[in-house]
TrEMBL record:
Keywords: ATP-binding, Kinase, Nucleotide biosynthesis, Nucleotide-binding, Transferase. Coiled coil: none annotated. This is dTMP kinase. One of its GO terms (biological process) is dUDP biosynthetic process. Its EC number is 2.7.4.9. Residues 8-203 form the Thymidylate kinase-like domain. CDD domains: TMPK. One of its GO terms (molecular function) is ATP binding. Pfam families: Thymidylate_kin (PF02223). The lineage of its organism: Eukaryota, Metazoa, Porifera, Demospongiae, Heteroscleromorpha. It catalyses: dTMP + ATP = dTDP + ADP.
Length: 219
């Protein structure tokens, strides 16, 4: 059976990495083969671009967009497509929805052009399920700043340019995510992230379990 593609989206501090890890554990315990990826990252090119975007001088919004799309194209070719063809459940910590939210609603780039580039980079293959972890930016950024030293130690990163943006930027990004969830209710599910980790994980699993059942019945 072809694999299943699940992505976690949301603003900074929403808990995407934590929930992606918990979901992977739950799936493995039930016998599923899983692969986790993050954007940008999970390939040689993606990891290089991640470090460049974090540590080098800021680039223009348009150049930033192209760097993310280049990373995504390589991730699709090198990891996601082969793993899905092998029947794995691929779990992505961010995907194309983040580009629409951050570079489109946040940076103000043309949404239609971003959607076209997303389609080119992915070859038209988007997640079967996108879990939007929705959270007020003030709460999410508070979480991030509270663990900033821990993140630096874990990933070797000095800062995150998106986290450093003004409040309006983050509110626009949140709105961008919410708009996508509202427009794609068949493949997006919104989960309130300002709950306990266990409660969020339970709601995420309910959405994934439903998608797994539908996916199996369609084969």
């Amino acid at each position: 059976m072809p694999g299943l593609f699940i992505a976690f989206e949301g603003g900074d501090g929403a808990g995407k990495t934590t929930q992606a890890s918990l979901l992977e554990t739950a799936l493995c315990e039930r016998g599923y083969s899983t692969v986790s990826v993050r954007e940008p990252g999970s390939t040689t090119l993606g990891n290089y671009l991640r470090q460049y975007l974090v540590n080098e001088q800021p680039v223009s919004p348009l150049a930033e967009l192209f760097l993310f799309e280049a990373s995504r194209a390589e991730l699709m070719r090198e990891v996601i497509e082969p793993q899905l063809a092998a029947g794995a459940v691929v779990i992505a910590d961010r995907f194309a929805g983040s580009t629409i939210a951050y570079q489109g609603y946040g940076r103000g780039l043309n949404l239609e052009r971003i959607e076209w580039l997303n389609d080119v980079a992915t070859g038209g293959r988007f997640p079967d399920l996108t879990v939007l972890l929705d959270i007020d930016p003030s709460i999410g950024l508070g979480r991030v700043h509270g663990r900033q030293l821990e993140l630096r130690l874990q990933y070797g990163e000095e800062s995150d340019r998106f986290e450093d943006q003004q409040p309006d930027f983050h509110h626009n990004v949140r709105y961008g995510f919410q708009q996508q969830a509202a427009a794609n209710q068949g493949c997006w599910v919104l989960v309130e992230a300002n709950q306990s980790i266990e409660t969020v994980a339970s709601q995420v699993w309910c959405a994934v379990e439903t998608k797994l059942g539908l996916h199996s019945s369609q084969e």
